[in-house]
Amino acid sequence: MRLGLVNFGGPAGQIAIMHRDLVERRRWISEERFLHALNFCMLLPGPEAQQLATYIGWLLHGTRGGLVAGAFFVLPSVVVLLGLSYLYAAHGGNPAMAGVLAGLKPVVLAIVVDAAARLGRRAVRNVAAGAIALAAFLALLLWDVPFPAIVLGAGILGAAAGRLWPAAGEGRGGSGPYAPADAPHAQAPTRRRRNLTILAVGVLLWALPLVPVVLLRGADSLHARLYAFFTRAALVTFGGAYAVLAYVTQAAAGSFGWISPIEALDGLALAETTPGPLIMVLQFVGFMAGWHHPEGMTPVASAVVAGLLTTYATFLPSFLFIFLGAPYVERLRGNRKIAGALAGITAAVVGVILQLAVVFGIAVLWPRGSGAGFNAFGLALAIAALVALRWLKLDVLWVIGAGAVAGLLWSVIGT
Known about the structure:
Blueprint: H1 2-6, H2 10-25, H3 31-42, H4 48-91, H5 95-123, H6 127-143, H7 147-160, H8 184-187, H9 192-217, H10 222-236, H11 240-255, H12 261-272, H13 281-292, H14 299-331, H15 336-365, H16 376-390, H17 396-414
Helix pairs in contact: 2-4, 2-5, 3-4, 3-14, 3-15, 4-13, 4-14, 5-15, 5-16, 5-17, 6-7, 6-15, 7-15, 9-10, 9-14, 10-13, 10-14, 11-13, 12-13, 13-14, 16-17
């Protein structure tokens, strides 16, 4: 719950916060185990940070641990974004909110830069890893290569260089109070009955909200069609929140006519500066679709139902992917080729985070475009946040709070 309240910064920032808290401070999971889980989650469709939280919860306490960790990692963002979506739909822009967001964005940039430095120090340990990280960075920055292609290429290169790859150490934190190496469920062989049970429960949980929606609203209603659409999006979209948003916007703002492209961009801005996975922007899309098309309901009721249905359809498959795949992945930890492939993916993640830092840096320092002036306040706040995080070792929550207050005060002084 605490991480769910402070996990700003998109996947990069959230992974950095989890690593700092669970590996370095609490020592609940080892460095090697954390990176192994991260590599697997990067291969899946959906929100990798939430899936990583679910995986770590499963390692520590089995299925119950995975459910609790994954659910409470996103629950605060569901509530916060519902409130912000209502304010956006009903009241438009608010000067105070704009000031707070202006202070949070530089802090987000600092979190991403810190994440790149932390993961880079551990993942880029040889020339091959450095080359993969640089190639991933340039592929995204210069040629806009799809993220799945980068992951696949990095895995192939890592497997090919497996004999040269140094063995990953356990790192710090392997002897914590809940050391996952001692967890019997992490080592037990996966059985066919277990997989069938998980699939059956998953199908039942998926149908649980759909049946009353169809009975009460109709199979052709907005809410039924929205639930089916976002289920497909959760299953077939790879590449993180940006790739998912591109796919969703093309349909929701195009053929479906649920929202406008400008609203989709505004939703991304809200999601980037609120806690929770960046893919929470899909809840905003669903909320606005319900707001614009109430179909006999009040706009607020329709929007809340649509937003919650969207979130449910988006995150349910993530739990199934982890509970089905994690036991297999744990059994492959000693495989040298698999280890090399996953190490290559980890190196590519460093390049991806660096590219994200560049994108965020441009957005923070030139918020109105390159020809509209430089944001000196944003640069100063980003540097101060980076110093506080990296060298002063302050808690992320305090840094985020200070950034919000600084942004609000700066907006008051500016007016």
